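F.,

This is the one I mentioned.
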């Protein structure tokens, strides 16, 4: 099992770098509902592990692990430190959020995800979103 990278936050606290993958296909966005904390719906996301050589490597790994899809293109939308707790009790995360294109057939990662589905972009706010994803969607104009 891999260990998440740890860096210092702007406040000097522990901080985990992580990625978020906003995967859009034909006016739909890929959404996941996790089994573990934090509750709610989100895009594919995860910690950057100690053995990940780059955020982009972690992005490709997380997309494949959680959805079964293969990335064909991605673009960094923003990077920012955000105060949002995770299941390992770290409150700060340095997010790299990407707009992604992917191919393949959806395969839900059953150990971590309750659900995985394409949702019409204009309906994502009808879902109970993870707090950090409310912020991210507002920041990127969704």
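My design for it:
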């Amino acid at each position: 099992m891999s260990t998440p990278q740890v860096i210092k936050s702007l406040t000097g606290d522990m901080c985990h770098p992580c990625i978020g993958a906003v995967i859009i296909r034909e006016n739909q966005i890929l959404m996941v509902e996790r089994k573990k904390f934090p509750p709610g719906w989100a895009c594919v996301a995860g910690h950057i592990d100690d053995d990940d050589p780059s955020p982009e490597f972690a992005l490709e790994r997380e997309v494949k692990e959680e959805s079964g899809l293969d990335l064909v293109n991605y673009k960094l939308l923003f990077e920012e430190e955000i105060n949002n707790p995770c299941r390992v009790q770290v409150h700060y995360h340095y997010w790299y959020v990407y707009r992604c294109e992917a191919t393949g057939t959806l395969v839900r990662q059953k150990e971590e995800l309750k659900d995985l589905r394409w949702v019409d972009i204009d309906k994502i706010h009808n879902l109970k979103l993870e707090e950090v994803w409310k912020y991210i969607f507002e920041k990127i104009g969704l």
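The mean pLDDT is 95.

Talk soon.
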